[in-house]
Amino acid sequence: MSDLTDKVRARAKELLESGEVKLVIGHARGTTPYRSRPHFASTPEQTADLIHDVTCATNLAVYVSKPKEKVAVIAKGCDARSLITIINEGQAERGNVVIVGVPCEGKLDEGGLLERLGFPRQVKAVREEGEEVVVEGTEGEVRVARDEVVMPNCTYCRARTPAVRDELIGDPVPAREEADSYPDLAELDAMTEAERAAFWHEQLSKCIRCYACRNACPSCFCPECFVDEYHPQWALHGGGQFRGNWMWNIGRAQHLAGRCSACGSCQRGCPVDIPLMLLNRWMERATNEAFDHLAGMSEEQKQLAALFRKAEAKVEHG
Ligand code: SF4
Ligand code: SF4
Ligand code: SF4
Question: Which atom in ligand 1 lies closest to the alpha carbon of residue 262?
């Protein structure tokens, strides 16, 4: 059991035993050793199932919706960014959310890991050792550099230590140097407008409109999403047709401008591998450059749409 898991369990138990919170939201082992699932502990005994390791990728802020009593969330940097964003948007009282921060050097991209390992392989356990992820399987042990198997967004994360938190379990880790330079957008930047349009036409044509991206996103909390409305019908229904898919994906990216924590949950959930993080990061760069605004990095932050001021810089891209 990892050191961080022990510490998370101990702190969660204390919080519940003292009555400081009614619920702790964290992770437990999932259906395979390289997956975790959300875990909701409401008694001290239930904290024994909590884990915290490289598999804990899900953004837990998605489970916080107007809590009536105090809840604690075991929060990575991106979870904390989302929590602050939804708190500032009235989806939870700050006093009802205890942000128990955990440092994070990247979480597993399960698909990438399996591809890297090659099939068929029976995975028995996954652990971190220094900068490596060690996979124990029936055919022995495989060591992979962590950066090769974490979610792409983790390799340029600016919140590896939660910027806003009530407490921190473990030692802080510095932000990635790449966080400000958007290396992931270099290929798109190098394209002409026509090439970029063709790229997105190809990608967005694959969308089957399952809305897994929406359901995984803490910032997508509207009781009725614009794509579910019939009067007026903003987007053609059903996947597989480009115009409706374009309206859906571009509309969603715009609604997420200045509200996205770059957690990667939407892309991770997409069954047809659309690189949604490119859209999100494109919007993040634009809002950061124009308004010096990054979602969820400060408690005092106002919503981007409530700033009512002119852009500070002209956005050069696109
Ligand atoms: S985006 Fe950052 S905080 Fe979130 S899982 Fe990746 S490295 Fe961790
Ligand atoms: S749009 Fe994607 S990356 Fe951004 S907060 Fe939502 S799920 Fe996370
Ligand atoms: S998860 Fe992927 S396929 Fe499903 S609606 Fe979102 S972009 Fe489309």
Answer: 1
Q: Of 107, 266, 270, 287, which is best to mutate to test ligand 2, by the most ligand atoms within 8 angstroms of its C-beta?
A: 266
Say if ligand 2 is within 6 A of residue 82 CB. yes
* Closest by CA position to 145, among listed 124, 126, 160, 130: 130
Ligand positioned closest to the Cα atom of 174: 1
Are the CB atoms for 132 and 146 separated by under 8 Å?
yes
- Rounded to whole angstroms, the Cα distance separating 277 from 67 reads 29
Pick the ligand that lies closest to the CA of residue 160.
Answer: 1
Number of the ligand closest to the Cα of 178: 1
Q: And the tokens for 178?
A: 């790449």
Best mutation site among 36, 53, 58, 78 for ligand 1 pocket (most ligand atoms within 8 Å of CB): 78
Which residues contact residue 90 at a Cβ distance below 8 angstroms, ignoring those fewer than 6 apart?
none
pLDDT tens series, the chain, 318 aa? 578 999 999 999 999 999 999 999 999 999 999 999 999 999 999 999 999 999 999 999 999 999 999 999 999 999 999 999 999 999 999 999 999 999 999 999 988 888 888 765 688 899 999 999 999 988 788 899 999 999 999 999 999 999 999 999 999 998 887 777 899 999 999 999 999 999 999 999 999 999 999 999 999 999 998 888 777 777 777 777 788 899 999 999 999 999 999 999 999 999 999 999 999 999 999 999 999 899 999 998 888 877 777 776 666 665
| Per-domain boundaries in the chain | 3-109+150-306, 110-149
The residue among 261, 252, 256 whose CA lies nearest residue 304 is: 256
Q: For ligand 2, atom 6, which residue shows the shortest CA distance?
A: 217
pTM given for the model: 0.94
- Say which DSSP state 237 is in: S
